[in-house]
Amino acid sequence: MEFSEALTQLKKGKRIRRTSWSAGEEFVFEVANHKWGDNVINPFMLIKTNEVPAYSVFQPNSCEVLANDWEVVK
Fold it and tell me: Which of 6, 35, 45, 68 has the maximum number of C-beta atoms within 10 A of its C-beta?
């Protein structure tokens, strides 16, 4: 699926990934309704990898936005 479709699924709470990624890049998910103390944080995306630490902020590049090999991870 295209990124726009994957983004819709992400916003519904689904995990997404590209089929072309290696096994090290497991999935991307949205973090919403998060707070730091009393401050509300805007939603953001994290990517889960098999590295340590396992979670990093995900910022898609133009290749990822234009790709059509996105899938929902179960």
Answer: 6
The domain of 63 spans 3-73
Tokens linked to 55? 């979670």
**Tally of structural domains, the chain:** 1
Residues 6+ apart with CB under 8 A from 55: 46, 47, 48, 49
- Count of other CB atoms within 10 angstroms of residue 28: 23
Q: Mind listing the pLDDT tens digit for each residue in 53-63?
A: 999 999 999 99
Whole-prediction pTM value?
0.90
- Cα–Cα nearest to 58, from 33, 25, 23: 25
Q: Is 72 within 8 Å of 11 (Cβ atoms)?
A: no
Question: 3 and 59 in contact (C-beta within 8 Å)?
Answer: no
